[in-house]
């Protein structure tokens, strides 16, 4: 399968391209941040007129995994118009172009479409109620995709791993602070189900291989607080867990409102894949192993200087 990955310089996009390029033919679309990657690069700013049809004609994929977005929650609050175009309208345009050309389309969305007030686990049947501009634009993107392309997949994700900038993920936030002996705040009142980005890459491609379509929660099999996640990173790397400071998200000073409960059910995913979904524990072990193997440095070597 020839897969085009948008957002190839991003946390998910770059890991996906690097992990899947042996098994599949991968083309990564970026905006000039990458060089010397083992997979093919195609440059495209998706917001430019004609960029989407040019990209599809150039890459000629069998499938597109659309990871590109403004995924910075607080930056979306500052630029709601730009966030709407990139996160809500572009996915619909891409989905429609794929439907017309017989290209499979997978759109990456977020667990943050929920406001977190449910007393329990969110399933795909629960009605979303976004709290921020980011979450609202991502939800609008889901709807645009599913109405433009009946065969599309929408995957609501949450993940961690190493990134090009070394600063993109929550796991890197804890690693960067704790490795320098500095304290790091961990929210005790935000529960989520993070999945290691390598597991996510593999799961997304399995979903394409199985020709799944429609809405799926694609997160890790275990819910924990962000504080517990920080503690587990500390223990895995042999850092002092006491440096992870228990805090409430309400005292964080973050611009956009955050949900307290982002526990998502993976029942539909595991049933339709016919396979168990990886847990955060094995994911943190892999995050550590990659560190020991020099993966973060290797990743940074692909950054255009
Ligand atoms: N990180 C998480 O835990 C998380 C959680 C839930 C959902 N998600 C979703 O997962 C997806 C991937 O997130 P991520 O964390 O990998 O994001 P990221 O690291 O911020 O990467 C975003 C990617 O989008 C690209 N991009 C931005 N504007 C573009 C444009 N106009 N044209 C083409 N490309 C553009 C960026 O390119 P540049 O590098 O050139 O800016 C970058 O490659 C997003 O859809 C996000 O909403 C992420």
Based on Cα principal axes, name the global outline: globular
List all distinct small molecules, including ions and cofactors, that are bound in this structure.
Answer: NADP nicotinamide-adenine-dinucleotide phosphate
Treating each run of at least 4 consecutive H or I residues as one helix, how many helices? 11
- What Rg is obtained from the alpha carbons, in whole angstroms? 18 Å
Report on the biggest sheet.
7 strands, parallel
Secondary-structure content class: alpha/beta
Strand order of the largest sheet: 3-2-1-4-5-6-11
Helicity level: 40-55%
Average pLDDT number: 96
Order of helices and strands: EHEEHEHHEHEEHEEEHEEHEHHH
Proportion of residues in β-strands:
15-25%
Question: Uncertain regions: pLDDT < 50 for 5+ in a row?
Answer: none
* N- to C-terminal distance: 32 Å
Number of strands: 13
Structure overview:
It is built from eleven helices and 13 strands. The longest helix has 22 residues. The protein is α/β, with parallel strands linked by helices and 305 residues long. The protein starts with a strand and ends in a 5-residue tail after the last helix. α1 crosses α7. It is 41% helix and 17% strand. The strands form four sheets. The chain has a seven-stranded parallel beta sheet, sandwiched between helices. Strands 7-10 form a two-stranded parallel sheet. Strands 8-13 form a two-stranded parallel ribbon. The protein is globular, with a radius of gyration of 18 Å. NADP nicotinamide-adenine-dinucleotide phosphate (NAP) binds next to α1 and β5.
């Amino acid at each position: 399968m020839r897969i085009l990955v948008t957002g190839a310089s991003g946390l998910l996009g770059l890991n996906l391209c690097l992990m899947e390029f042996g098994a599949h033919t991968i083309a990564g679309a970026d905006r000039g941040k990458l060089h010397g990657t083992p997979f093919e690069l195609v440059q495209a700013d998706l917001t430019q007129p004609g960029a989407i049809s040019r990209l599809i004609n150039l890459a000629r994929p069998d499938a597109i995994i659309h990871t590109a977005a403004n995924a910075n929650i607080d930056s979306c609050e500052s630029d709601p118009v730009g966030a709407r175009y990139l996160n809500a309208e572009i996915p619909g345009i891409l989905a429609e172009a794929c439907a017309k050309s017989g290209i499979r389309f997978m759109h990456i969305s977020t667990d943050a479409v929920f406001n977190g007030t449910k007393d329990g686990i969110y399933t795909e049947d629960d009605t979303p109620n976004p709290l921020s501009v980011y979450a609202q634009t991502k939800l609008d993107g889901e709807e645009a995709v599913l109405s433009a392309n009946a065969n599309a997949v929408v995957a609501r994700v949450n993940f961690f791993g190493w990134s090009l900038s070394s600063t993109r993920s929550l796991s890197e936030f804890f690693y960067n602070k704790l490795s320098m002996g500095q304290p790091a705040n961990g929210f005790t009142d935000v529960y989520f189900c993070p999945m290691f980005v390598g597991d996510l890459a593999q799961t997304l491609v399995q979903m394409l291989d199985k020709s799944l379509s429609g809405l799926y929660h694609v997160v890790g099999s275990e819910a924990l607080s962000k504080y517990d996640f920080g503690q587990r990173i500390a223990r895995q790397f042999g850092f002092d867990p006491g440096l992870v400071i228990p805090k409430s998200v309400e005292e964080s000073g973050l611009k956009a409102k955050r949900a307290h409960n982002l526990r998502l059910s993976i029942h539909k995913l595991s049933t339709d894949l016919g396979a168990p979904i990886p847990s955060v524990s094995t994911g943190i072990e892999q995050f550590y192993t990659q560190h020991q193997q020099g993966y973060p440095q290797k990743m940074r070597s692909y950054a255009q200087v």
